[in-house]
Amino acid sequence: QSLEICFERCKISFTLLVFQALEQTKRMKYVQTMCIARRINKSV
Predict the structure, then answer these.
(1) CA atoms of 32 and 20, how far apart (whole Å)
(2) Distance between CA 19 and CA 9 in Å, rounded?
(3) Residue of 14, 34, 33 lying closest to 22 (CA atoms)
(4) How much is the pTM?
(5) Which of 19, 23, 28, 44 has the fewest CB atoms within 10 Å of its CB?
(6) Is 3 helix (H, G, I), strand (E, B) or coil?
C-alpha cells in the first residue's frame, strides 16, 4: 500500500517537472519571438 502511495507521489512530481519544463520552453520561445519582432520593427 505504501509503495502505491509513493508511486502516486512520484507520478505527480514527475508530471509537475514535465509541466514546468514545458512552461519554461513556452516562455523562452515567447521571449525569442518578442526579440525577433523588435529587431524587425527596428530594421523597418
Answers:
(1) 18
(2) 15
(3) 14
(4) 0.58
(5) 44
(6) helix
DSSP-derived letter for residue 1 is: -
Confidence of residue 19 (pLDDT cuts 50, 70, 90): very high
- Domain boundaries of the chain, sorted by first residue: 1-44
User: Taking 80 as the threshold, does the pLDDT of residue 21 lie above it?
Assistant: yes
CA torsion 12-16-19-21 (nearest 10°) is: -130
Residue in this structure with the C-alpha cell 500500500, named with its chain if needed: 1
Rg (CA), the chain: 19
Residue at 10: amino acid letter? C
- In the chain, % of residues over pLDDT 70: 95
**What is the rounded CA–CA span in Å between residue 12 and residue 15?**
5
